[in-house]
Amino acid sequence: MNLRRDVFQAIADPTRRAILLLLATSHSMTAGAIASNFDTARPTVSKHLQILTECSLLKQEQNGREIYYHINAKKMKEVADFIEPFRNMWEERFNKLESIMKKYKSK
Amino acid sequence: MEAKTKVHAEDGKQEIVITREFDLPLALLFKAYVEADIVEQWMGTKVLKLENKKHGSWQFETSDPKGNVVFKANGTIHDFIPERQIIRTFQIENTGFDAQLEFLDFEALTADTSKLTMQIIYRSVALRDQMLKLPFAQGLNMAHNRLQDIVTKLK
């Protein structure tokens, strides 16, 4: 259950989603090659790669001196129901409703 | 903090059940669904029509800052029982998505708290899954657009 939440936290970030999208279209890349696609500082991209790897959305592969990253298709499929953004959409709406009505009450 | 809104979507079923407990008395929660100007605020859309009665109908419309209509939805109200239940249909216009049936049950938990259970039934399992993934797809589109912006800047 914890792992599942981690996965959703991982894909909730727009930069990390962009990394997944980039890798989905280009098979495997080194951290440097991935970072060159972003304005973000290299250590920040490395941190994102670490998070994506920790929750198994990405896999690392050693090739000579270089580490290549590629998408773990199996894991991506596991979270393919992608319920969390749907839940978030309703959560935000309901939070708004609640705060509006609390003010309404005190009027 | 534990999530207050829960989404239950069983594999292979054509329904979604959303539950939420509110730190509001039942009367105020229900009011938020009835008063058009309040619905506008929390749904973030313009309410063109909202007839809260059996056999009534409703119509929402959202425009971007330039005034272009980006979202239109409508439906009919099948049943309306104050502070207890709303049964209605919901359809987004011009998208090819079929109408969905919604059962909204309102209940008081204590004098100051209440609960909403929203059961949404879709025409098919495939449509249910598609609607469930829509917010993720939109997020992915945003990420994709951002990526394209970055790539364009590099050229």
Automatic annotation (TrEMBL), chain A:
Keyword Transcription attributed: yes
A Pfam family annotated for this UniProt entry: HTH_20
Keyword vocabulary terms for this entry: DNA-binding, Transcription, Transcription regulation
Domain HTH arsR-type: 1-94
Top-level taxon of the source organism: Bacteria
Entry's Gene Ontology molecular function annotations: DNA binding; DNA-binding transcription factor activity
Alphabetized InterPro entries for the sequence: ArsR-like_HTH, HTH_ArsR_DNA-bd_dom, HTH_MetalResp_TranReg, WH-like_DNA-bd_sf, WH_DNA-bd_sf
SUPFAM superfamilies assigned to the protein according to its UniProt record, in alphabetical order: Winged helix' DNA-binding domain
Stored NCBIfam families: HTH_metalloreg
PANTHER family in UniProt: TRANSCRIPTIONAL REGULATOR, ARSR FAMILY (PTHR33154), TRANSCRIPTIONAL REPRESSOR SDPR (PTHR33154:SF33)
Entry protein name: ArsR family transcriptional regulator
Organism from which the protein derives: Chryseotalea sanaruensis
UniProtKB/TrEMBL annotation, chain B:
Cross-referenced InterPro entries: ASHA1/2-like_C, START-like_dom_sf
Matching Gene3D superfamilies: 3.30.530.20
Domain Activator of Hsp90 ATPase homologue 1/2-like C-terminal, residue spans: 24-151
Domain of life: Bacteria
Family statement: Belongs to the AHA1 family.
Protein name per UniProt: ATPase
Species: Chryseotalea sanaruensis
